[in-house]
Amino acid sequence: MTGMTALVVTAQADPDRQTRAGNVETAREVLESKVHFGEEAARNVSGAQRVARNFDVLGHVDFGRRDTNADVFVHDGFAYVGTWGSPCSARGVKITDVSDPRKPRFIGTLAHRTGTSAEDVVVRSVSTDAFTGDLLAVGIQRCGGSPGLDEQLFGAQFWDVTQPRHPVKLGVINMTDGGGGVHELDLVQRGGNVYALLATPFSEWFDPQQDGEFRIIDVTNPGRPRQVGQWGAAEHGFSPGPLFGQGSFGSYFDHSVRASADGMRAYVSYWDLGVLTLDISDVTQPRLVSRTRFPPSADGDAHSVSIYRSGDRKFLLQNDEDFDPRSPVELRSGGRQVGFGSESPFAPALWSQPEHKVSGRVIRAAWQGCFSGAYPAGTEGSIVVVKTLFSFLGDPSFEPRCSQGTQERAAKRAGALAVLHDFRSPDTSPQWFSVDQVSIPVVFAEPRDAAALAKAGQGTLRAGRPSWGFMRIFDAATGRQVAKFDAVPNVHTLPSPDGAWSIHNNEVVGDHSYVSWYSNGIVALDLSPLQAADPSDPEKVGQFIPPGDPRVWGVAVRGGLVYASDMNSGLWILRPTGPAAP
Fold first, then answer.
1. Quick one: the chain helix, strand, coil %, rounded to 5?
2. Closest among 421, 442, 439 to 430, alpha carbons compared
3. What is the CATH number of the domain that holds 348?
4. What is the rounded CA–CA span in Å between residue 397 and residue 453?
């Protein structure tokens, strides 16, 4: 996969395009660098063998391998597969007749707009005064680099697919500009109304109107969609900036949304803020009911969620998408835990150090550690604390004297054992913003935690257990984590073998969950251990891995069959067997 490899944070702001985050183009470049770092780090697999345990392969279509496939949705004998933005093929949604699962037939496309991707797609049968039939909703995002796209708007399209061979475009709603769009969405009918629930990542910061990142669109008349409600973390006081959260990609942003069956609640996956349960009984005033929470030792990254019911209990199966297996670093001094920090991915991993840690004297550099004279005698072999100023939103009082990379190189020349950034920012959590390589470990921490180590004069930086993304399971009533599932290969390995070992999505049918897990393919889980008074972890009962370079993005379950969209090899139609069968 490809992505931005440089961070641009110094471009002059265009006074006509100011938002909460300043210059739109600058913000987009910074965020693409952060978002795509892990995707670049997930190296391609060469020649993986197909694995099918408790799955029979019935059919396959590769779509000509002209682009990169995204999510899949199956409705009434047809599969709809989205297209990712790299390469930016603008191929839209690919429609496949799967009425005979052994002979799937690709029949056409829709929503192919130049310079955009169409990653997430949903189809529902609806009936209103204005429209009756099969309604398709697809999120439209920018993926092209043409400057002409800067002034365009992006959002969602709505299509009549009652006759999938002859889809009809009904309506469009465009709401975000610059680098935005709708990443994921859902459709739900409630009485005589139909609503589209949209996730518009970072729009609260980068769009001039500054609406929240969760949007509710009335599509009762899909030819005239209109926004009726919205909710955002910033407006409700959760976030002072777009890159505020925990871990190496700290951020609160709306990545995904799912409606409850009755349409009265929305489950919104808001990255490091967790999965939010919003009461949308009044669509004009979404109200936060509860949210899941991460321990400080976790990297965050709530990507998507599904719901499992067992009797009177309801569980949230939360998928944490994490492409950087370095977990938060524990800061210790005098035998006690001081706090946690995040590592730079461009420095040696602490996990690779003896006993997964570095220990020693802790000293503080002067003048932000920008040059050799800032380091006192005795720096050699010490953990050096450097004061690091940063403001994503451009607060001039947090203008640094030099770059993070300059600080790290100066510390290395002075003989430092490791660098601990005393990260000071009014709007951003401690995390990396330099892609400069350095040969000593680098950690970013809150000022109070860095100060505690410096005051003690002795300290330890201890790596957490490496972890790609996995499934966390929460009791929906209490918000308490009660179980997890991470028992697949390479989730806790560092260095990791070639591949992308994070979880992505899951769907629940009965007491089973079918999970798309990138290079681990499709994983079938038995959820019955959650039924105990004291729930325990689900058990793996089947797995399918496509051949070649497996990157399974999407999963759908219909009529006892599992449909898997692989980013590289296309659509796979599977029959789960034995204990994997629903």
1. 15, 40, 45
2. 421
3. 3.50.30.30
4. 25
Judged by DSSP in three states, 516 sits in strand
Any alpha helices (H) in 272-372, and if so which ranges? none
Res 15 pLDDT > 50:
no
Using an 8 Å Cβ cutoff, are 66 and 89 in contact? Answer: yes
Cα–Cα distance measured from residue 561 to residue 544, given in angstroms and rounded to the nearest whole number: 13
Residues 337 and 415 in one domain: yes
Residue ranges with strand state E in 311-379 = 313-320, 329-333, 336-343, 357-364
Banded pLDDT at 5 (limits 50, 70, 90):
very low
Q: For residue range 401-418, list pLDDT tens digits in order.
A: 999 999 999 999 999 999
Q: What span, in angstroms and rounded, lies between the C-alpha atoms of 389 and 519? A: 38
Do the domain assignments include residue 394? yes
Closest CA to 286 of 360, 214, 358: 214
CA–CA distance, 245 with 27 (Å, rounded to integer): 17
SS3 31: helix
Name the residue range of residue 297's domain.
51-324+466-580
Instruction: Provide the greatest CA pair distance for the chain.
Output: 79
Mean local confidence (pLDDT), 87-92: 93
CA distance 543 to 522: 5
Contacts with 312 (C-beta within 8 Å, 6 or more apart), sequence order = none
- pLDDT at 16 exceeding the cut of 70: no
Beta strands in 476-545 (DSSP E): 481-485, 505-509, 512-516, 522-526, 539-545
Dist. CA 564–CA 147, nearest whole Å = 35
State the Cα–Cα distance between residues 580 and 582, nearest whole angstrom. Answer: 6
Please determine, for residue 21, whether its predicted confidence score (pLDDT) is greater than 80: no
Please name which of 90, 219, 225, 222 lies closest in space to residue 167, comparing C-alpha atoms.
Answer: 222
Domain count, the chain: 2
Q: Is 534 exposed, middle or buried, given 0-12, 13-18 or 19+ CB atoms closer than 10 A?
A: exposed
Query: With 80 as the cut, is the pLDDT of residue 29 above it?
Result: no
| Token digits of residue 506 | 């899951």
CA 366-371-372 angle, 5° bins: 90
| Cα end-to-end distance, the chain, whole Å | 34
- pLDDT in the model for residue 244: 96
HSE toward the beta carbon, residue 389, CA cutoff 13 A: 13
Average pLDDT over residues 204-214: 88
Highest mean pLDDT among 39-43, 166-170, 546-550: 166-170
Point out the domain boundary residue: 462, 496, 526: 462
